[in-house]
Amino acid sequence: MIFNPTKLGGAFTIDVEPFQDGRGFFTRTFCEKEFAEHNLVQHFVQANHSGTQGKGVIRGMHFQYTPFSEVKLVKCVQGAIFDVIVDVRAGSPTFLQWFGAELSAENKRMMYVPAGFAHGFQTLSDYSEITYMVSSFYNKESERGIKYDDAKVGIEWPLPVSLVSDKDLNIPLVDSNFMPVTI
């Protein structure tokens, strides 16, 4: 695996190195040893799989407060998405800055999302599926979000937005009362 640091400290895109032959391909998507060598979380408690119908759909930007902060390892297994993370860590020099990368079934790239980051994505194909591992169990009371079109963050989505859930539409804008995540 090739670990590519992003402009946001602790976050990586990860490119796999598939072995290919006449049957297809084989690749590792997680290796405890390699994650440890990069000082990344190696313990995940849950694996999730979601499918999204329609190009331009946005899911997110979600995060959880400590002690339920999540590390995520995200992979697109069908179609393509524009995966986005936003730094919401207290005291971070990149607080409220974002980073996005295309993850697709074709490029097999993954996103390592550290604790203290909001995460979401926009679909780039008519149908997309992602799988992702998380380091903490979901806790509804500690879940929060960043609104996908908050001008203070300024995420540049690659496509016109076609659909956003009511839950995500009702996330308040970041203002002076926003509480960062303490890690």
How would you describe what is shown here?
- The protein is built from two helices and 14 strands, in the order ββββαββββββββββα.
- It is mainly β and 183 residues long.
- It has one domain: Jelly Rolls.
- The chain has a six-stranded antiparallel beta sheet with strand order 1-2-10-7-12-5, with no helix packed on it. Strands 6, 8, 9, 11, 13 and 14 form a six-stranded mixed beta sheet that branches. A two-stranded antiparallel ribbon has the order 3-4.
- A hairpin with a 6-residue loop joins β1 and β2.
- It starts with a strand and ends in a 14-residue tail after the last helix.
Q: What's the assembly state of these chains?
A: single chain
Overall geometric form: globular
Taking Cα atoms only, what radius of gyration do you get, to the nearest Å? 16 Å
Helix content: under 10%
Euclidean distance between termini CA atoms: 27 Å
Architecture, CATH level 2?
Sandwich
User: In CATH, what is the homologous superfamily?
Assistant: Jelly Rolls
CATH class: Mainly Beta
The helix/strand class is mainly beta
The number of E-state strands comes to 14
The number of helical runs is 2
CATH fold field value: Jelly Rolls
Number of domains: 1
Strand-and-helix sequence, N→C?
Answer: EEEEHEEEEEEEEEEH
Order of strands, widest sheet: 1-2-10-7-12-5
